[in-house]
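Quick one: structure tokens for this chain, please?
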Amino acid sequence: MRHRGRLVLLCCATIGHAQVVVNEVLPVPPTGEPEWVEVYNGSDTTAELTGWWIADLRTAVRLPPLRLPARGYAVLTRDTAALREVRQLPEGVVLCELRLPTLNNTSDAVILRRADSVLVDSLFYSLRWGRSGISLERRQPTSPAWSPENLAPCQAPTGATPGELNSITPVPSDYQLREFRLSTPTTVLVVVENTGTEEQAGASCTLWIDRNHDSVFTADERCWQQGVPTLMPGHRWQFTIAVDSLWAAIPEGWYECQAVVNLPGDARRWNDTLRRRFYRSIALPAVRINEILYEPVPGGAEFVELVNVGPDTLVLEGWKLHDWSPSAADTVCVPVPLRVPPGGFAVIAWDSAIVGAYPQLQTHPGFVLAGGTLTLNNTGDVLVVRDPNGVVVDSLAYTPEWHDPVLSSSQRQGRSLEKLHPLLPSAERSSWSSSAAALGATPGEPNSIAVPLPREGTLTAAPNPLRLSSEERRYCVLSYELPFGRAFLTVRLFTEEGAHVRTLAHALFTASTGYVVWDGRTDRGELVPPGIYVVLLEAEEAGGGRRFTAKAAIVVGY
């Protein structure tokens, strides 16, 4: 029978509750393990079971000579040698080999009768109330088996407890670590419960982070410890820890973490420990969007390329891309540990057709077909990159106008948007233009229109001279360094004679350093003629009133 969605055990005896009971059963064992039934003698005297019957709903088998000590266990199975190979049985358990009736994988009964056929105990099980490979245990051998509070699947890590106290049987001293997880991107939640039958004191909780990724937790990897207050039976204590207090001086990435509650005299150590994988987010992520193909040719596939601009190798497992709506239908997730070295590329696609267009991706270490679906609109869309904690790493809102203006709408099809340099701001239109590659895109490779950044100086330009022929790069990056932390920036371009050519930035709020891109065009979108041009930078300190001015010359040729 089914009761409240849990396994129901039916038990009856001739007088009161049986002292010899069916205490545990494994009807669907893991591969290599035989089926078995555990019998427990709850009396203070040895029980003589010789000639008793063990049966299911169809067949019955007599037990061989068998004496079960007081408070002792007997495990009945068809193959004792096979059971010993997979289970380390406690010393003193009685192991009995016999032609045990075959237990059904769906539902069945285990019946124990005396030699004179008098019913001693019976247990009905259904795998709807348990799990394959996990034994079904009795909570209290002296309580009625039909009680819904007296049954459950085994909770021990081994999945069964043949020959020993059942994992769900209460003991006086037992603290259990119930939860260990990120409750928010910035806090860790730990929950401890007194699952014993008596009040306990003197416990503590300790956390470790496997900093060197060797799966061994050492003393120098201990990051936090705190005492646990005295708890009454059934009571819980929970607390949260700020992630920043745990992650000090640890690079971004995945880490295995361990939490342990330590109670002196704890009878069940196996439920004291939980291990979890957490992702370490950082304030300034080292990943940037570097290339986007949002309008492939018919039969092609969209992709997004990321680049690692930091000094450390990153593992992008669990990272997500989404458009304006981070719903499941508009999101893709990196399903594997994708390792991206410094300066390396990660190409994320969600349609296998991409391999037909770019065969080199089949062997590219940074290529992955991500789970989920994402559609990048041809008329413009938002693209957001998040780490596994949901922290926004990079984002932008592109439009078709980000393409080179000389291209028609039909020429843009199958051609990606490439960034001029990974360090340029992704959200700025001036940081992007159309790919000049023969295939229309460069997934997993340096961008075809990439330009170097100026290396030093208050206001410098590169490349300089700037050549505007179609075979050369037509973009110049201006680098500035201001004498104050925050400012409103205006950058204008003039001819050598002083005629205004282009406004590159107007009252732009900026930090002390940054970049501005010039594509060799006027405000009207026309390419400038060869000559010498002067860049005038003017900055006004935000909230301070100080001003700063700098000039630089750019030589333009063809």
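Confidence is low (pLDDT under 50) at residues 1-17.
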